[in-house]
Design a protein that fits this description.
With 326 residues, the chain is an alpha/beta fold. The protein contains ten helices and 13 strands.
Length: 326
């Protein structure tokens, strides 16, 4: 338990009798009749942890049971994902899954302690956020053009670590732009962002939801967004296509999954509950304020198709980028 931080999401039994409208009956009895654990495979305080706690609290309100966030960080999310994969498939252990372990790491890690394709049943997509290229405010880089014109080797970019989606984004940019930028891997997004803010690294390819706070504080400059069109929150920031790098649409996403073998009726019930959470006005606003989009996969099957498409997409990007397995 040394790697785990347990925090109980409020909402539980005080939510009222209407909460139990979401409950269901399975072959083994009433569900849920005890606390549910949501494994978040990242440290407390980060972006994924934020969404994990938010969903846990909202699920507790709807299910009439505590939903406990269990942080199991390490190896870019692989440690916690493995813990969830090995859990009893009874609906009492869920995973806050993300693009790294589920769609990118199969091609950037030599040995995964889980099978991303067969160890989980998808429940629902929560949100997605495009990647931004940002520069430290302590650097002289003010625009994407500055990056393209800088002398070879004089720039560096920080990433969440070797094998991460952010490293793939950085190396892909280098291949397509033919710009020489040194890679500085860090142990997670938090340390990488701190390095950029301190000027230890010039650039970072960071999800919009993680980059926006520092941008709004003037601590880093947005240079380009990996989306088909400009963001309403950053209308002055060009897309990568606009700076001469087409087909560079990269998003980071999170969703809820369960171990394979979880009863279908439980998966269906949880899908409905998560969909209600994602489509609620307050959550939609929060996602939009972070430059993201709410999940639109209306069924577990559609979320599963989404993940398969993402794996195919990122497998090609990893090959093109030349990122080696770690």
């Amino acid at each position: 338990m040394s790697l785990r931080t347990l925090i109980v999401a409020v909402g539980g039994l005080v939510a009222g009798t209407s909460c139990f409208a979401q409950a269901t009956t399975t072959a083994t009895g009433h569900y849920p009749d005890k606390p549910i654990h949501l494994v978040v495979p990242y440290p407390a305080g980060g972006g994924a942890d934020h969404w994990g706690r938010l969903v846990a609290a909202k699920l507790a309100e709807r299910l009439g049971q505590q939903v406990i966030v269990e942080n199991v960080p390490g190896k870019g999310g692989n440690n916690g994902t493995a813990v969830a994969a090995k859990a009893t498939p009874d609906g009492y252990t869920l995973l806050l899954g993300s693009i790294g372990p589920l769609a990118v790491h199969p091609y950037t890690y030599k040995d995964l302690p889980f099978d991303p394709e067969h160890d989980f049943v998808p429940i629902a997509l929560l949100e997605s956020s495009p990647i931004l290229l940002v520069a430290s405010a302590k650097s002289s880089v003010a625009t994407a053009t500055d990056v393209m014109r800088t002398n070879p080797g004089s720039l560096s970019y920080a990433s969440n670590g070797n094998g991460s989606p952010e490293e793939v984004a950085g190396e892909l940019f280098k291949v397509r732009s033919k710009v020489d930028i040194a890679h500085h891997p860090y142990d997670g997004a938090g340390p990488a962002r701190k390095a950029v803010l301190a000027g230890e690294a010039t650039l970072m390819f960071d999800p919009c939801k993680g980059a926006l706070p520092a941008i709004h504080q003037g601590l880093q400059r947005p240079l380009a967004v990996a989306a088909p069109s400009r963001l309403s929150d950053l209308p002055q920031v060009p897309t990568f296509a606009e700076i001469g790098i087409p087909n560079y649409d990269l998003r980071i996403w999170t969703g809820v999954l369960a171990p394979t073998g979880t009863p279908r009726e439980i998966v269906t019930m949880l899908n409905k509950a998560v969909q209600e959470i994602v489509q609620s006005p307050d959550i939609k606003k929060e996602i939009a304020d972070e430059g993201g989009e709410p999940g639109t996969t209306t069924s577990p099957e559609r979320f599963g198709e989404f993940i398969k498409t993402e794996r195919t997409h990122w497998r090609a990007l990893v090959r093109e980028s030349g990122v080696p397995k770690v």
